[in-house]
Amino acid sequence: ARLADAGAAHAQPSAPAAPTWNTEQKHFKAKVDGLVDVTLRLQCAVSETAADDLRERLWHENKICVCTGPPGSGKSTVAHACVARTLELEGRVLFALPKAQLASRMRERYGDSVDIDTCHAAFAFHEAVNNLPTLAHYALVVVDEISQLDAWQYERIVQLWNDPAFWKLLSQLRTARPDKKTLKILASKKPWSNNGAPTPKAVCKLLKSRPDTTILTVSRRGAEEVNAAALQGLFPRYPPKACIDADVESNPDNYVGGKRKALEALVPTKLEVHIGMQIYFTRNVRKDIDFVNGMRGRVLGWDGAAKALRVETATGHRCAVWPWTDTELGNMVYYPVRAGYASTVGRFQGAELPHVTLYLDAPGVPAAAYTGLSRVSTGNDFLLACKGPLTEDHCVPARA
Length: 400
Description:
Elements: H1 2-10, H2 23-43, H3 48-61, H4 75-88, E1 93-97, H5 100-110, E2 115-118, H6 119-122, E3 140-143, H7 151-162, H8 164-175, H9 180-187, H10 200-209, E4 213-217, H11 220-234, E5 242-246, E6 255-256, E7 259-260, E8 269-273, E9 278-281, E10 296-303, E11 308-313, E12 318-321, E13 324-326, E14 332-334, E15 337-339, E16 342-344, E17 355-360, H12 368-373, E18 382-386
Parallel strand pairs: 1-2, 1-3, 4-16, 4-17, 17-18
Antiparallel strand pairs: 5-8, 6-7, 9-10, 9-15, 10-11, 11-12, 13-14
């Protein structure tokens, strides 16, 4: 017994035993490690073809992996194991925590080998959406104590994670003319096959395949062009119920060189009325039923005797639209509506949209491409068209 004790006393300390993973930990670690491997291969890809294949794979397979459980269930253990493996493979890691005190403690563990910061700083919660940082250079991003974040903060993280390449593209469009590679990417996002004006068939097909899209144009003339094509494509067999004098400010004929003509020279837009067509209100008439500027609606009917449109708003209110006397435009009388299939980019400045089809109908307009594309969150949420081949003149930055 004494010999055994002596031998034990002089034995060299052994290396820490490898952790024993349960089934859930094994599954979580294998999932994260596999995605890290693909990301590292993408970062080291030597050819654009290989990089495109890996991006496509990540687009379909990469998911945010969430590890939850009660205290002591091994969440942190498996997360640190994923970090250690990524560092061994020379991948870059970001570790974000909700509090500065927690971040300080994590720096004691990892030192300079891992980028450690608060979630507020790491994900730029204080910045506008258009100025978000890119996470593309990280092979692994770990967010600890995620339950302490607000919902909007979590959504901001998801937005960053979704498409870092898209934010890089927006950054280029904001500050410089696009290079050939960027133009090629943008040109591949065509909503219709022809390189030209939107046809009734093309616009109809687009609206049916992407009912959530908002078509944005550079000019009023472009919006009129798309709206006319939409009405012809969606309502080809039936004559209009009426042709009314609609919104004045949407009529491109009321402008010369971008400036509005004198009041006495203004004329309303001629708008054909079809049952089921989409419209936008253009004046604030009744806020209690959402009859306000910018509200989208659907035409339910036309009362020929009363000369009134029956409209249902996107919020479910039903109202009648009669001719409106506009005191700001010399008491001109018209229906305060316009066709609801296309709008100029300026009307949606600051909006966040689920999907955008951007029609660059006029080249040389500063920030038009950037403003239109920055309405969406990812590169999968937009389509882009122009008249003829896409050139750098269609993507003039705000600061040329």
